[in-house]
C-alpha cells in the first residue's frame, strides 16, 4: 500500500482534527502518501482531494471542528453516488481509507469498501458516544464538559430566581450526553431515549421537592426523549404542575464545538494511529476503539448496529444525590 486517504463525515466532533493529524503523520511515518478528502463523502464523489504532508496538520491538535470539513451526504447512500466515489478514488490511485465519523460514516464506509474492494478502517468521531466497540467516541468528553459548564451557569440563575429549568442536550437516539452531563452537573431529573419517561411520576417527584421547599430544579432532557424535546416536556409538565416559574434552554450546537479536552486529543491520537496501522496490516471494514484502555477493532456493521448499553443506575443515583 502506497497511498491512503482520510476523511471526516457526519456531524463534526471536537478531536477530529487530532485524529486527522494522527492519520496523516502515521501514514507519512510508514512511508505512505496521504490524501485528505474534503467535505466527507460529498467530496469523495466530487474528487475534492488535497495532498497532505506533515506540515498540513501542524497546529490543529487543539482546534475544534474539522479542517477537512464534513457533510451528511445523501448522494453517497445512493448507488450512483457510491459508484461515482469509487471512480474518483480509483482515478486518484487511493488504496485505502481511514473514515472518521459516526454510524452513518461507518455504514457508508462498509458499502464503499464492499463495492470497490478498497479497504477502509474507521475511527469513531461523534459527540453522542453511541458506537459499539469503544468505551468513548472522539468528541464525547469535550461535549460533556461543555454541557456541565453550561448547566453550572444556568444553575446560578435558576437558584437566584428559584426557577425550574428544562435543559435540552444533544442525542437524537442516545442519552449518554444527558445522563453523564446530568450526573456531572447535579441535575434533579434526567430524561433519555433509552428509558421511558413517565410525566405523572416526574410531576409527583417535582411536587415532593416543592413540599420540601426545593427552590430550584434542573431537568436535563436528551433531544431524542420519547416524550419530546425540552419545550414539549416543559409544556406537558406545566399543564399539570405550575408551582415553579419555568424556563427552557436548548444548549444546541455549542456542544459540537470548542477546543477538545486532553482526553479527546489523546483518544483521537491513539485511534487515528490504530486505524491507520490496521489498514497497513491488511485489515478492512473495522473501526478502532478503546475498550478498558486497550485498542480494539470492531467490524463497521457491528459498531453501528450493536446496542450500546446505558447505565440506568445513574438515573437513580442522580435522583438520590440531588434531593
Ligand atoms: O450525531 C451528532 C449530533 O450532534 C446529534 O447529537 C444531533 O442529533 C445531530 O448530530 C444534529 O445534527 P445536525 O447538526 O446535522 O443538525
Characterize the structure shown:
The termini are far apart. This protein is α/β, with parallel strands linked by helices and 323 residues long. The strands form two sheets. Strands 3-2-1-4-5-10-11 form a seven-stranded mixed beta sheet, with helices on both faces. The protein has a four-stranded parallel beta sheet with strand order 7-8-6-9, with helices on both faces. The longest helix has 22 residues, at 140-161. It is elongated. It is 42% helix and 19% strand. The chain has two domains: 3-139 and 260-299, Rossmann fold (3-Layer(aba) Sandwich); 140-256, Phosphofructokinase domain (Rossmann fold, 3-Layer(aba) Sandwich). It has helices at 16-29, 40-46, 79-91, 103-116, 140-161, 176-184, 199-211, 230-240, 262-280, 300-305, 313-321; strands at residues 3-8, 33-37, 49-52, 96-101, 120-124, 163-169, 189-191, 217-222, 245-250, 286-291, 294-299. Strand 4, helix 4 and strand 5 form a beta-alpha-beta unit. It binds 6-O-phosphono-beta-D-fructofuranose. 6-O-phosphono-beta-D-fructofuranose binds at residues 11, 72, 102, 126-128, 170-172, 223, 256.
Could you outline the blueprint of secondary structure elements for this entry?
Blueprint (H helix, E strand, L loop, with lengths): L2 E6 L7 H14 L3 E5 L2 H7 L2 E4 L26 H13 L4 E6 L1 H14 L3 E5 L15 H22 L1 E7 L6 H9 L4 E3 L7 H13 L5 E6 L7 H11 L4 E6 L11 H19 L5 E6 L2 E6 H6 L7 H9 L2
Parallel strand pairs: 1-2, 1-4, 4-5, 5-10, 6-8, 6-9, 7-8
Antiparallel strand pairs: 2-3, 10-11
Bound molecules: 6-O-phosphono-beta-D-fructofuranose.
The site of 6-O-phosphono-beta-D-fructofuranose has 11 residues, from loops.
Amino acid at each position: 500500500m502506497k497511498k491512503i486517504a482520510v476523511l471526516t463525515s457526519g456531524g463534526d466532533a471536537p478531536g477530529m482534527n487530532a485524529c486527522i493529524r494522527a492519520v496523516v503523520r502515521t501514514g507519512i511515518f510508514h512511508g505512505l502518501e496521504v490524501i485528505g478528502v474534503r467535505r466527507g463523502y460529498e467530496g469523495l464523489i466530487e474528487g475534492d482531494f488535497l495532498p497532505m504532508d506533515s506540515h498540513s496538520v501542524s497546529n490543529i491538535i487543539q482546534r475544534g471542528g474539522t479542517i477537512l470539513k464534513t457533510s451528511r451526504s445523501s448522494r453517497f447512500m445512493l448507488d450512483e453516488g457510491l459508484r461515482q466515489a469509487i471512480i474518483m478514488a480509483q482515478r486518484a490511485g487511493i488504496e485505502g481509507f481511514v473514515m472518521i465519523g459516526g454510524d452513518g460514516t461507518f455504514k457508508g464506509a462498509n458499502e464503499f469498501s464492499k463495492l470497490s474492494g478498497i479497504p477502509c478502517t474507521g475511527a469513531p468521531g461523534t459527540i453522542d458516544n453511541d458506537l459499539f466497540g469503544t468505551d468513548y467516541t472522539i468528541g464525547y468528553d469535550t461535549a460533556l464538559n461543555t454541557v456541565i459548564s453550561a448547566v453550572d451557569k444556568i444553575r446560578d440563575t435558576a437558584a437566584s430566581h428559584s426557577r425550574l429549568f428544562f435543559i435540552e442536550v444533544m442525542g437524537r437516539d442516545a442519552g449518554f450526553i444527558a445522563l453523564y452531563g446530568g450526573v456531572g452537573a447535579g441535575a434533579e431529573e434526567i430524561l433519555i431515549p433509552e428509558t421511558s419517561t413517565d410525566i405523572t411520576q416526574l410531576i409527583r417527584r417535582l411536587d415532593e421537592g416543592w413540599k420540601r421547599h426545593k427552590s430550584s430544579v434542573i431537568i436535563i432532557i436528551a433531544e431524542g426523549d420519547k416524550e419530546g424535546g425540552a419545550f414539549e416536556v416543559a409544556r406537558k409538565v406545566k399543564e399539570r404542575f405550575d408551582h415553579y416559574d419555568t424556563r427552557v434552554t436548548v444548549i444546541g450546537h455549542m456542544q459540537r464545538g470548542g477546543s477538545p479536552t486532553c482526553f479527546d486529543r489523546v483518544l483521537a491520537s491513539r485511534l487515528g494511529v490504530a486505524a491507520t496501522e490496521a489498514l497497513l496490516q491488511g485489515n478492512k471494514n473495522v473501526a478502532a476503539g478503546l475498550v478498558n484502555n486497550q485498542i480494539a477493532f470492531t467490524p463497521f456493521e457491528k459498531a453501528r448496529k450493536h446496542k450500546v448499553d446505558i447505565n440506568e443506575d445513574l438515573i437513580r443515583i442522580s435522583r438520590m444525590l440531588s434531593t
